[in-house]
Amino acid sequence: MNKLNLGSVLSFFLFIAFFLGVVAAYFISAFILFSILVLLCLFFVYFTYRKNSLVASDLWILMLFFALGGIWNISFFVQKSGILLNKESEVILHVLSIPQENKRSNTFFGEVSAIDVPKNSSRVKVRDYTRSLKYLDTYKVRGRVTKRVYHNRFFYYFWIKSRAKPLKLSSGVLNNISQKITNYVLRVFKENCSDQAYRFLGAVFLGRRELIKNEKGYFSDAGVSHLLAISGLHIGLTSLILFFLLRFFSLNFRACLFVSMIFLFVYTFLTGATSSTVRAAIMYSVFAVGFFLQTRVDPLNSLGIAGLIILLCNPLDVLSVGFQLSFSSVFAIIFGYRIFKFKFARNKVLNYLQQIIVCSFLVSLFITPLVSYYFHKIYILSIVYNLFLIPLFTFILMANFLLVIFSPAIFVAKSLGCVLSLVIDWFINLVHVFGSFELSFVNYAFSFKQIVIYYLFLGLGIVGYYFRNNKLAVK
Fold first, then answer.
1. CB contact set of 78 (below 8 Å; sequence gap of 6+)
2. What is the pTM of this model?
3. Regarding beta strands 88-95 and 138-150, do their DSSP bridges make them parallel or antiparallel, or are they unpaired?
């Protein structure tokens, strides 16, 4: 059994320390206190290192990162955004999702920032009564920001009156490229697939979840909403498909790895650069760089590096449900495989199914309290459902990728579109059937105290199992 020690996964522990510091700053918003702690930590790191006490030095480095996390979070809070709640102000608004038409207004997600503080922006749901704003465009517009609370989470709305006069701004070269690529891919889906398949592929391949409506409820009831979110599963499969296609054209291994890594970041940018996609892209890149340098990279270290980069870009992401669920899921799989001794069949099909069961179980074990806290549900049969849905979903992603690549060939594209439309129809109907079972989930909401108790007992149980098996191994 591999042992988990501080030295071998230092980057991961640094991320955890920084993460805890960011969280602590929400409860203790004392910049001076964290600054004093930083100075003390620097002194003791130097002192213990000079004394050649490496364990103590590492512990003080962790404490240093904890203090830096607190300072970093507070520094974001003290910046004035220039946007006042419940009062009209002129802002810069970037449209992040495809506007959905309603009777009197269009609704979509956007990013607003004050004119004088462009770096400090917030994601909002927009009600556009002018019905004139377009997907991925940027505007200077006058409106009002309001704040709402739902299921223990904060949401911001931006209201644009019908008499407002939005001024379209230049979106920049990268956004223009992103807009053209996204519109092209959506057009390929629309021209070659059924309406349902077009909306589904737009959601799972480009992150445009606003295109699907009733289907969201089916996936939520079945406990497989992760299949709709752009995540490590999508990133990994897409990268592997591209990698093997490049290998088919006789490119060497390093060239394939490099091209797939570049594509991965482009794809991450196209899908909105959410926490889960950024995390997956960074982890893949860390492994790729490790291969180029001929160095073995520990998965926990790559997860830690991804977490540090995301929190350095925006420490407020710790409040994001996507960030919490994404990192908890990946940690559960990596940590679970390291702690528990799983034995898998040699048969490839059985091995694949066993891997799905184990991964689903580990993820459910770690994220059930969070899912219950935010969504007020505990899923019971989602592990079983994943056995049927993940292989089918993998096929959909592969066929979808081929559709985009061979879209210039009309006959091939139409053929792939017909197959995809049929399979997606089966897939969604199957999800609907699964979600309709009464035992699929129970309605229950964990409290914050219950979450703490759950993870405390889970941690104690894992520690007890780990040390018990180590003693048996020694004997």
1. 31
2. 0.78
3. antiparallel
